[in-house]
Specification:
The protein has helices spanning 13-25, 33-39, 46-51, 100-109, 157-162, 170-178, 182-194, 201-211, 214-228, and strands spanning 29-32, 59-61, 73-78, 134-141, 150-156, 167-168. It is α+β, with helices and mostly antiparallel strands.
Length: 233
């Protein structure tokens, strides 16, 4: 089907912005604010009209969602509703934006930490590069009854990019908790209370063992066996 012209002024600026993205940018490609404004020199709020496309299911990423982008760049990831067609311009209000106060409340409840990797706002990643930026992500949670409500969680810019389709199988987790021994449940409860988990001496030894060269691993294994008195299969 041939797309209408994005230059046809019988359409509103939001529709024309959608058609411009389809015709001039293309899904998966990057554009800049300067290019957008040059295409619509007479539209004062073309940036806002383009952002409004997200309410129709269009995915347009900024550096907040895609750290590889520069400050002035955006990526047209995926088109949503074909709002130039009759009946397709209804907004998807279920994904309405949060207010600043709501975002702050969610982040405070999460300790101002990314709940996927644990990094704090403005901290440096271990592999270098841009410092972390925290934002609020939406996560599907699969409950015991099979329903999948969307809940909010704090994530850093890297984890948001990699975790968009992630689901939390909360019902399955409840089943695994029931299968724990009393001691295991007590240990887990202590980690939850502290919101932290320190590896035991045994776990630290195992971690170091896994990093050893083959010859040293064998020597370490022999030392463990000799201390134990017999070799376990």
């Amino acid at each position: 089907m041939t797309l209408p012209s994005w230059q046809d002024e019988k359409y509103g600026s939001k529709v024309r912005a959608a058609l411009w993205l389809m015709s001039e940018v293309g899904e998966g490609n990057v554009f800049t604010k300067t290019q957008l404004r040059e295409a619509f020199p007479d539209v004062a709020q073309i940036d806002r009209r383009t952002r409004d496309l997200r309410d129709h299911g269009w995915q347009i990423d900024t550096r907040r969602e895609d750290p590889s982008l520069k400050l002035e760049e955006q990526r047209f990831v995926k088109k949503g509703a074909e709002i130039w067609l009759p009946g397709q311009a209804k907004t998807q209000k279920s994904k309405a934006s949060l207010t600043a106060a709501q975002r702050t409340k969610i982040m405070a409840a999460d300790g101002f930490l990314c709940r996927s990797c644990g990094i704090g706002a403005g901290e440096a990643y271990h592999d270098g590069g841009q410092d972390s930026q925290l934002d609020v992500a939406r996560r599907k949670v699969v409950l015991e009854d099979g329903s999948t409500p969307v809940q909010f969680v704090t994530e850093c810019n890297r984890c948001r990019v990699g975790g968009r389709e992630r689901e939390v199988p909360l019902g399955e987790l409840f089943g695994q908790v029931k299968a724990l021994s009393p001691l295991e449940r007590k240990v887990l409860a202590s980690w939850i209370k502290a919101d932290a988990r320190k590896p035991s001496a045994l776990e630290r030894l195992w971690g170091v063992y896994r990093t050893l060269p083959e010859e040293s691993r064998e020597a370490f294994r022999q030392a463990v066996v000799s201390e134990d008195g017999h070799e376990h299969e």
